[in-house]
Each structure stands twice: as C-alpha cells, then as structure tokens.
Amino acid sequence: MYLKNSKKIVIKIGSSLLVDKEKKIRKKWLSSFAKDIKKLKSNNQKIIIVSSGAIALGCKKMNYNKKNLKLDKSQAIASIGQIELMNLFLETFSKYKLDISQILLTLDDTEERRRSINAKRTFENLFDLDFIPIVNENDTIATSEIKYGDNDRLASRVAQITNADTLILLSDVDGLYTKNPKKFKDAQLIKKVIDLDKVIKNINIKGMTELGSGGMNTKIEAAKICNLAGCNMVIANGLSLNPIDRIQSEDNCTWFISRISKMHARKKWIISSISPKGELIIDDGAKKALHSGKSLLAAGIKKVVGRFNKGDHIKILDNKKKEFARGLSSFSSKEINLIMGCHSNEIQKILGYVSKSEVVHKDDMVEI
Ligand code: GLU
User: Fold this and answer.
1) Are the C-beta atoms of residues 296 and 336 closer than 8 Å to each other?
2) 125, 202, 239, 263: which has the highest count of C-beta atoms within 10 A?
3) Quick check: pTM over 0.70?
C-alpha cells in the first residue's frame, strides 16, 4: 500500500545484488529489476536508482580483491568500474525502453543547501525528460573526510533532497530483526517501525554489522534521515528476481514509517535557510492571497532585490518592507524583473519559453 501510493521512489541496490560471490554479473536479476521499474513507471511513479557496484565491477575487470584496496587505489578502481556499471544498466534498461542518466554525488552536494538545490533541480529536469537518474557516490574524488562512505546514507540524502515518498533499500537481508538472525534462532523480523528510537533501544544494532553491505547501522542512520524528511523507508531482501514486485506481494520486509508529513519537513527546511539570496516585495492583494494559502503570482510582485537563480531561497516582503514569508523561487531574479506585474498567461510570451505560472508555489513557501 505504501509503495502503491508513492509518487517518487528512490531505490538503492547494493553491489551483492549485481555481482555474485563468484564475481559473476547477475544479468538475469538486473533484467527482472528493469521489468519491475517499467511497471512502476507505467503507474506514473518517478524513480531514482542509487546503485553501488563501481568498485566491485572495477575489481572484477582488473582482477583485484576489494578487501586489499587502499583508498587511492579504490578511487582509480571506482573510476574504471563506474563505466562498467553504467554500461550494464544501459544495456539492460534499453531492452525495456527505459532511458537512464548518471549522477555522481559527493557529500557536499546534498549537505550544502545551495548545491542540494542544484542537484534537486537536475533530478526534476531529468524527470521532465523521462530519464531515470542512476546515482552513485563520486568515489573517484571522495576522500575519507568528504565521503558518505556507504550508499545507504547517500540514498537517504537523495530521498530527502528530492522530496521522495519512499526509499527502498534492497539488500541481502530481509529487514530489521529483533536479534541477529545469523546467531539467534528466535530472532524475529520486525515488519513495521513507527517509533524508531523506541524500537532500536532494545536491539543490538552494532552486533549486526555483517548484515547487508553497510551493516544494519548505516540502514538505521538512513531511516533516521528519512524519518525527519517525511519519507517512508523499507529494507527488503533484493536477491530474488523481481525484487520490487516482491515487496508488494510478500510481506517479508521492514517498513519504517515517518510520522512527519513531507510538507511539514519541507517547510521546516525552507524556514531554516541561513542566507536567502534575495527579496521580493509584493503588493497588499498578493499578501492577502498568500495569507489565505495561495501561491505568489507575478502580478503581485512590485520589486526584486538581489540576484538569485531558479530554486534559490528568497524572502517575501510586504509593501512596508516587512518580511512575512520565505520560499523557493521558481524563477531567477532576471526573469522576475521581466515578468513582475504581468498576468500569469503572459509569462510564456515575455520569456519565450514555457515555465511555471507561480513565482513561488504555495508548497515552497512558509509564512513567518
Ligand atoms: N559507492 C560504492 C561503489 O559503487 C559502494 C558503496 C556502498 O556499497 O555502500 O562501489
């Protein structure tokens, strides 16, 4: 049910799903995964894939052992393996007429507000073009201090910045157990977690490091990030064919349900902007409209202060220059200078291209 109702889904796949213990590529599995993606897309669900495997595939090509690699060597190996990884996706996904693109991220790209807005915009433009972004950490340049280190956390940050509804962590474990299932026969799979802090208090998470590539620890960290972002998360065993279909048909996974609404999380994020890039001064009519929950249209804008890009944080000031809202601008300051005071249906003609009709959408705005 959670998955069916999700409009935007981030799916993380671990290396062990792509390459088996004998270092063979699991082509049949990837085909079945592509089929699952095709199905989600036919329901109009937007998909982002976060895939590991650059180092595993680089090692396979160079006949290296992953365990003995030092950081600088692994950076070179990741550079070799990343192309192999994308070729594998390209070859498989094109058979299902699924278009893919590559995004490589470093920690700052999601942690730093400006850069995360840029990344978010790229994801959105790729959705508009109907491409599936395939994300990995930019291992080639990421040194230990600037590394996510594991794709569980990277995927949760991607889910957060793209405002996703669900993050699926496909791993080689079924989900979160009450005890380490490899050691205790009476370990039970927890199917649903609502109060994360309370649940993990009674579990020895650190004792489950051998479960899943990043261990259970990184998965719980990812769940915490999702929780705060208003995004649900599921840990599921992805080893079998059609892993996404299975989440829906078999109830053998752990769902982490966020208690915060996505809208609430997003607005909290908007309000906490440290340095808005500019200001919009609006008239009384627009102020009234905003107050009653409407979006800000070009017609109500009287003046633009500062220079900013599309997606930047801005202050909204009333006619007496009093700040009363903050939001994300759907237009650059240059564009707003051209369209302010105009009716929304004139925008396309003035700018010469199709764009949004709201300058600041109501979902991107908070009154203060
Ligand atoms: N970014 C790494 C790779 O592609 C994997 C990190 C992880 O599996 O968590 O090889």
Assistant:
1) no
2) 239
3) yes
Predicted confidence (pLDDT) per residue in 303-354, tens digit = 999 999 888 889 999 999 999 999 989 999 999 999 999 999 999 999 998 7
Of all atoms in ligand 1, which is nearest to the CA of residue 52? 4
Whether residues 103 and 128 fall in one domain: yes
Distance of alpha carbon 239 from alpha carbon 245, whole angstroms: 12
Amino acid identity of residue 167, one-letter, is: L
Phi, psi angle pair for 367, to nearest 5°: -80, 140
Tell whether 2 is covered by a domain.
no
Quote the CA–CA distance of 184 and 182 in Å, as a whole number.
6
335 exposure class (CB count in 10 Å sphere: 0-12, 13-18, 19+)? buried
Length of the chain in residues, anyone? 368
Query: Who lines ligand 1 at CB under 6 A?
Result: 14-15, 52-56, 78, 136-137, 139, 150-151, 213-214
| Alpha carbon of 150 to ligand 1 centroid (Å) | 6
Final residue belonging to a domain, choices 223, 244, 266: 266
At position 186, the amino acid (one-letter code) is: D
